[in-house]
Amino acid sequence: MNKNHIYCITIGTGIGGAYYHHELMDGYYQQANSVGYLLYDSVTKTNFE
After folding, report:
1. Which residues, in sequence order, are CB contacts of 9 under 8 Å at separation 6+?
2. Which of 1, 4, 11, 40 has its CA 20 to 30 A from that of 21?
3. pTM
4. What confidence category does residue 46 fall into, taking pLDDT thresholds of 50, 70 and 90?
């Protein structure tokens, strides 16, 4: 699959960003597209950020 455009929005504590026309969109204050993760333990039902 040879695709030229990818767009992803993630809604959580903020709104994610996009990669469009071979450019990384950076948002109004250049804070879009922040990468984060959340570790979740399904046994104890706790998470670590």
Report:
1. 15, 16, 17, 18
2. 11
3. 0.25
4. confident
Domain that holds residue 7: 1-49
Report helix, strand or coil for 12.
Answer: coil
Contacts of 27 (CB under 8 A, 6+ apart): 17, 33
Contact call for residues 19 and 25 (beta carbons, < 8 A) = yes
Per-residue pLDDT band at 6 (split at 50, 70, 90):
low
Rg (the chain; Cα; Å): 15
Cα–Cα distance, 22 to 20 (Å, whole number): 5
